[in-house]
Design goal:
Elements (H helix, E strand, L loop, with lengths): L13 H15 L3 H10 L6 H9 L6 H11 L3 H15 L9 H4 L3 E5 L2 H9 L16 H12 L7 E4 L6 H16 L2 E6 L5 H12 L7 H9 L5 E6 L7 H15 L4 E6 L14 H4 L10 E3 L8 H13 L13 H6 L1 H15 L3 H12 L21 H10 L3 H15 L8 H10 L6 H9 L3 H4 E6 L2 E6 L2 H8 L4 H12 L10 H14 L2 H5 L2 H6 L2 H7 L6 H17 L4 H14 L18 E7 L2 H5 L7 E9 L2 E8 L4 E5 L5 E5 L12 E7 L2 E8 L2 E6 L10 E2 L5 E9 L2 E8 L3 E6 L5 E6 L5 E7 L2 E6 L3 E6 L5 E6 L8 E7 L2 E7 L4 E6 L5 E6 L4 E7 L2 E6 L2 E6 L1
Parallel strand pairs: 1-3, 2-5, 2-6, 3-4, 4-5
Antiparallel strand pairs: 7-8, 9-32, 10-11, 11-12, 12-13, 14-15, 15-16, 16-17, 18-19, 19-20, 20-21, 22-23, 23-24, 24-25, 26-27, 27-28, 28-29, 30-31, 31-32
Length: about 850
């Protein structure tokens, strides 16, 4: 008895069936007469000529003649049944509608580097899309094991698929997922981890689970655990993730998720550790695989899962370009192999034997022979077995050796340049730059010739982008081969130098902004990027932080601390705003100069000096979690303070720098608390006071004792929207604005009305005083300036601010008078209060609430942060 020499499950056409018959006969070694005689003894009826016609003819065999032939060749009963099912399948009328790949994958999320293209090619064993077809062969036992794992009872851990580079790990994983999607409608996530970071997988998993965008790890796992159906999670090329820490964190996440009964997880990866790939801390150990005999391991290099017949059939299919939509070239050797199954069988057996269980090597050898102009026959005189490569390196060398000597090194360098590309690959401009940096300048014509060569199918992986094409090497094994024996650090330094845009990062492309960090790490140039404010203003900071190693330099560590604190907050902001936010975050974590020291031209009018978070108590006001209704910033008893009022009527006074409560008081009637609508600080009769507006009343509170005056002032006949304090003559005054555009100025000691006026611009949004001047800012950004004592109009200007302000303040630096404003959009604007000229803007980390000037300082309360800016 013999083992089947073919894969009937892969047969999709009558031509494929005929080639399978020829391969079976060649593998049996029997003559036509012997096959017929054995079949007759088994009870079948077939003649020698009938067998010959089956093996060499171009007609469709009958089911009876095929059954007789299979018996005559000694094919085992299980395989005979598979071949007869293939005949039955081909005999059926074609379905009215064959589902497309998009329909099959409708319940799947495909994420990661060029994930959909990668999945479609690998699941069908294709080197390139253009030739088409389905070349997946063999590996039936491995496929069955993967399917059982992903559809059976909860295994509680991931399945790991491994093997040498080129063993077919990616193909097996993608094929298993394709079968699940096609046959069961199972939902799933397919993630291509080439160059991926842990956050990349986390985000993909959130999408596949339909978890909230801001889900934590626990929230994500809870969503997965409570799902009504099983989610298959397939991660390919985990060994090619961005870095060691990313591989570790991804493996830990997958192992934790695999415990849930609603998940089934499979991972394709190389072990990365030799000699003990199961050692503690290894990738296999992190994934929960204790040893080579583990049920959670499919090792495609072992006898248990490697099927020689599958590799032989794969080589034969490559030689004949079986099932290809666009076979070619039209006059190449593949036409001879199609016409001569016996020749194909001899050559395929040799290719499979030389490939040593490696599908990539078999593909490179078979395709190069298929598209050659000369037919190769192992039985011919003078045939040299070493003409068929046995390793990736040999296959690559044979391709290069056939090139003219003048171009050989140049093409090798072009390929080596791609070995240093990350992600989806690089565009032609960067490809030429990388090649020149590695010592061999090339032209667009050289790239075109390489792409048009017969070797492009197994050397290059090309995908379209907005402005052209992105190109990388087809397989990681090619990267390994082209980098072998090289000084990779020196190469990466050359590539990094070519990657940095000479005219600044404003004009940098997507690849440079995302992967400059990867190249800098490999080249040992991280400090160069961390000190480049132009890079930080434009780059993908999440990628930078994901790939950065632990810094040896203390200053680099401080920069990284700032970036980790601020990266997620600055995403989506324009470059200038991004750097101001990062400077603010630097102040927030107590490192105000760590990034600004790298600024070549200095800052604008405002530089963050310190910043810290308002505590939960200030943000929430009390244990009932009531909200803040008004905030002011000022100076009391020589201390910079924040004053906050809440919906329960309580006003709290905070030390702005220490973040500690100094005073808590309730100025209105405790039995009928009124929420503060506006706040200010002031000095009267040598005493610091808080001025609190509630409804239409104004309360004056001693800032030391918290006691309110005996009588509230009537600030407005309607709801007060803004207040400010100042001194007119020798009397303290308070100005109050309302929702109807009215401003009233009252004596703060006796409540007498000094004067009132209307702005005519809607609600009074903010008020401020500057010596003997009163400034009013309306919702359209217009500022009017009047005499504080009389209300006489002096001047007006526009700030350009379109959001209604929450607060304005006036202060001085040197001889210049400054106006600052902030509002719900978080923008802090600084203007010359005399001319109206815009001086600087800053965007805070939350909606602006309050402003105050101190000596050479501007204090800003925004969101849950208070910050001080040097002026």
């Amino acid at each position: 008895m013999m083992t089947s020499a073919s894969d009937p499950d892969a047969v999709t056409s009558w031509d494929g069936l005929r080639r399978g018959i020829a391969a079976l006969r060649a593998a049996s070694g029997h003559s036509y007469q012997r096959i017929a005689a054995v079949a007759v003894r088994s009870g079948h009826s077939i003649s020698k000529s009938g067998v010959a016609n089956l093996c060499t003819g171009d007609g469709r065999p009958t089911r009876e003649s095929l059954a007789a032939f299979l018996h005559g060749c000694g094919v085992p009963a299980e395989s005979r049944a598979s071949w007869l099912r293939a005949w039955d399948r081909l005999s059926l009328p074609p379905p009215a509608d064959t589902p497309s790949m998009s329909e099959i994958l409708r319940r799947w999320t495909l994420q990661g580097t060029n994930a959909r293209d990668h999945f479609e090619r690998r699941s069908r064993g294709l080197l390139s899309y253009s030739r088409g077809g389905d070349l997946f062969r063999g590996r039936r036992h491995a496929l069955a094991a993967a399917r059982d794992w992903l559809t059976g009872p909860p295994p509680g851990r991931p399945l790991v698929i491994t093997g040498q580079p080129g063993a077919g790990k990616s193909a097996l994983l993608a094929r298993a997922c394709l079968h699940l999607a096609r046959d069961t409608g199972q939902r799933g996530l397919y993630f291509h981890a080439r160059g991926a970071t842990y956050p990349d997988l986390f985000a993909a998993l959130r999408t596949a689970c339909a978890a909230a965008p801001d889900s934590s790890l626990d929230g994500l796992l809870e969503t997965l655990d409570q799902a009504g159906s099983v989610l298959v999670i397939a991660v390919d090329a985990l060994d090619e993730a961005a870095g060691r820490d990313d591989r570790r964190r991804i493996a830990e996440l997958l192992r934790e998720a695999a415990v849930l009964p609603t998940s089934r997880i499979a991972v394709a990866t190389r072990p990365l550790v030799a000699p003990d790939r199961f050692a503690p801390g290894s990738l296999f150990a992190l994934l929960g695989v204790p040893g080579a005999k583990s049920a959670a391991l499919i090792d495609l290099d072992t006898d248990r899962y490697f099927e020689p017949a599958g590799l032989l059939l794969f080589a034969a299919a490559m030689l004949t370009q079986e099932g290809a939509r666009h076979p070619g070239p039209p006059d190449a050797a593949w036409t001879a192999y199609r016409a001569d199954p016996a020749l194909t069988g001899r050559l395929a057996r040799l290719i499979a034997a030389r490939a040593r269980r490696n599908y990539l090597v078999a593909a490179m050898a078979a395709l190069s022979i298929s598209v050659a102009s000369r037919v190769v026959d192992p039985a011919a005189a003078g045939f040299n077995i070493t003409d068929v490569p046995s390793t990736v390196g040999e296959a690559l060398s044979k391709y290069l050796d056939n090139l003219p000597e003048l171009h050989r090194q140049q093409i090798r360098t072009l390929l080596r340049a791609l070995a240093y590309a990350r992600g989806d690959g690089i565009n032609d401009t960067l490809w030429l730059r990388f090649s020149a940096a590695l010592g061999h300048p090339a032209t667009e014509l050289d790239l075109a010739l390489l792409r048009d060569s017969a070797a492009a199918d197994y050397l290059l992986h090309t995908v379209p982008e907005r402005s052209g094409m992105l190109t990388r090497l087809f397989h990681q094994a090619l990267n390994d081969e082209l980098q072998a024996g090289r000084d990779e650090r020196a190469d990466e330094q050359s590539v990094f130098a070519a990657l940095v845009p000479p005219d600044g990062w404003t004009a940098a492309g997507d690849y440079q902004l995302r992967y400059a960090a990867d190249h800098a790490v490999a080249a040992g140039r991280t400090t160069q990027l961390l000190t480049d404010r132009d890079y930080l203003a434009h780059a993908d900071l999440s990628r930078l932080l994901a790939v950065l190693p632990e810094p040896a330099d203390t200053t680099d560590l401080e920069r990284i601390v700032v970036l980790r604190a601020g990266a997620f907050r600055v995403a989506g902001h324009q470059p200038s705003a991004r750097m101001k936010l990062l400077d603010l975050m630097a102040a927030h974590v107590g490192l105000p100069d760590v990034l600004s020291a790298d600024a070549p031209g200095g800052h604008g009018a405002m530089t963050p000096h310190w910043a810290h978070a308002l505590t939960i108590s200030l943000h929430s006001i009390d244990a009932a979690n009531r909200g803040v209704t008004a905030v002011a910033v000022g100076t009391v008893h020589g201390t910079d303070v924040i004053v906050a009022g809440g919906t329960d009527g309580t006003v709290r006074l905070w030390d702005a720098f220490a973040g500690q409560v100094i005073l808590a008081t309730q100025p209105a009637d405790p039995d009928e608390p009124a929420r503060p609508a506006a706040l200010a600080t002031c000095t009267t009769d040598n005493a610091d006071v808080l001025v609190v507006a509630t409804g239409y009343q104004i309360h004056v509170v001693d800032a030391l004792t918290g006691r309110a005056g005996p009588t509230a002032l009537i600030g407005q006949p309607s709801q007060i929207t803004a207040i400010t304090t100042g001194v007119a003559g020798d009397r303290p005054v308070v100005a109050a604005g309302d929702a109807h555009g009215r401003v009233r100025v009252l004596d703060l000691l006796d409540g007498a009305l000094r004067y009132e006026y209307r702005t005519g611009t809607g609600a009074v949004e903010a008020l401020a005083t500057d010596g003997d001047q009163l400034l009013t800012m309306a919702g359209d950004g217009a500022v009017t300036v009047r005499e504080l004592g009389t209300g006489r109009w002096l001047r007006a200007f526009r700030t350009g601010q379109h959001a209604a302000p929450a607060a304005i303040a006036v202060g001085r630096t040197g001889a210049q008078t400054l106006l600052a404003y902030t509002g719900p959009d978080g923008v802090v604007g600084l203007h010359d209060a005399t001319t109206g000229q815009a001086l600087d803007t800053y965007r805070m980390l939350g909606p602006g609430r309050a402003l105050a000037f101190g000596p050479q300082r501007l204090y800003v309360a925004a969101g849950t942060t208070v910050a001080a800016f040097r002026l």
